[in-house]
Amino acid sequence: MQEILRFHPVYQQRVWGGRAIETTFNRQLPAGEVIGESWEIVDRPEAQSVVTSGPHAGKTLGALVKTHAAELLGPQWPAERPFPMLVKWLDCRERLSLQVHPPEAQARELGGEVKTENWYIADTAPGAELTVGLKKGVTREAFERAIIEQRVDDCVHTFRVAEGDSILVHSGQVHAIGPGNLILEIQQNSDSTYRVYDWGRVGLDGRPRELHVHESLKCIQWDDFEPEPVRAAPTSEVIADCDAFRIRRVVLGPGDKLHFRAREQPRILSVVSGKLRIGTAELVRGDNAILPYSGEFSGEAEEFGIVLVTDNFAGAA
């Protein structure tokens, strides 16, 4: 595979969503729908990315993994194993539920999937916040009591964020996204989420959304206190590094170049601002693409911008 892979987005209605993906990225969303998520790169039974152009146009990501696993992900990748990452845009007009993803032991017990994710703040309203982890000293007993008394805010770590900030959210960390955030979420290929608290909200059907308090309490890391985000900076740096993936924020000026050698590893490119040309393809703000293992790629920035490069995922167990 010598060409980058771009895909049609898969839009998802969410009670907390809006229309910012349309206005920010100059896209056309389904009329009359509240869109909270745009699944940009996905290989799951319930959703498949479809290639937009080139020799593989019209094929799903899942089909490409099955037929071109070695070219796409490397010679050691089993053809039956799905693509390991899921990339989403999140348009959070309202506060999301307080939730947790299961760590490995709990995932086996509960029949779920491990999920570590990174949030990159692409745009935000003044005073917007994220919630990740517990306040110092909070115990399971105190947290359970706070759920009953509807004062969970007293127990969780909430902080303000600005454009360019990011934070790695590990499996087992209780978390929620506050209103006013447009976020690029780069995560393991998983969709296991347990809601522990939903602020008294109802869903799109007018009924309270399902909670998973029992499962959540089993999964929360009770010694996880007040993690800090990576704040926006004018220089390139690694903003997330874990067993499942690594993300580098690359700051580019007009004419700056990127080069990726063939047969090193596959990568995901995410343009959060600016424009980047790779061969004949132009990637603009909001675009996400896969650079296959077998290809060699050179890019040049057409204007100032920031690109996230995700790698080290093809060997993730």
Automatic annotation (TrEMBL):
CDD domains: cupin_PMI_type_I_N_bac. It comes from the Bacteria. InterPro entries: Carb_Metab_Reg_Kinase/Isom (IPR051804), Man6P_isomerase_Firm_short (IPR014628), PMI_typeI_cat (IPR046457), RmlC-like_jellyroll (IPR014710), RmlC_Cupin_sf (IPR011051). GO terms for molecular function: mannose-6-phosphate isomerase activity; zinc ion binding. One of its GO terms (biological process) is carbohydrate metabolic process. Keywords: Isomerase, Metal-binding, Zinc. Binds 1 zinc ion per subunit. Gene3D superfamilies: Jelly Rolls. Residues 4-121 form the Phosphomannose isomerase type I catalytic domain. This is Mannose-6-phosphate isomerase. Zn(2+) binds at residues 101, 117, 175. The active site is at 195. Its cofactor is Zn(2+).
